[in-house]
Amino acid sequence: MTEYSLADDLSTALALAAEADLISLERFRARDLDVSLKADASHVTDADTRVERVIREHLQAARPGDAILGEEFGTEGESSRQWIVDPIDGTANFMRGVPIWGTLISLVVDGVPQVGVISAPALGRRWWAATGHGAWVRELDREPRRIEVSAISRLDEAAVSYNSFKGWDDAGRLPQLTALNRAVWRSRAIGDLWSYMLVAEGALDAAGELDLKPWDIAALAPIVREAGGRFTSLDGADTIWNGTALASNGRVHDLVLDLVRA
Question: Where in the chain is the domain with CATH 3.40.190.80?
């Protein structure tokens, strides 16, 4: 098997994101956007499926020995190296014309995310990171800049995003969410990828939610961690595989965990 450096893998992921943007942005707010319901009652658009197909085709050519896991077409191949793809994170926003959505691409090695790229063309932003290479953002035509988390260490000075009131309620964690809201300085339900990237940029101090799949999480973790933050489940496990996520600047992480654990 060919050995690839993380820098090579990151370059590949960035090229894939650029290809994805050409498709997704052209379909955003399209009058003929095709929307249907999947078996789990979530929505899928023709942009979701087209983006994932293109990414899979490019990966099969560029990394033929690697496995792929995508939201729309499942798992392909077996390898310690697995690419995890969410073609459009925030499909509900996408189909309603809300610009908070993007393509998530991650390389997971032995179950641990090592590369993450998040491209949100309607917001004019792309974030990326690879283990040991820092976390970065590029806004429109500006030069890339390195990002880092905030230095806030007190909950009563912290700004957090909980993403979905209904999600916490459905999971039976509304008392925990209420306790968190009472403890922090400011709370918002910003939603989807952007809340986690705001943590990585230092604009928010923590963000978390439930009812997640690996493709919702994998690309987020390397960016938050390389920005100096911490990324776990809502119960403190260092994993992307149990369906919840908590990202923070690290300083308030345990304080938030104390309030939101099941």
Answer: 155-260
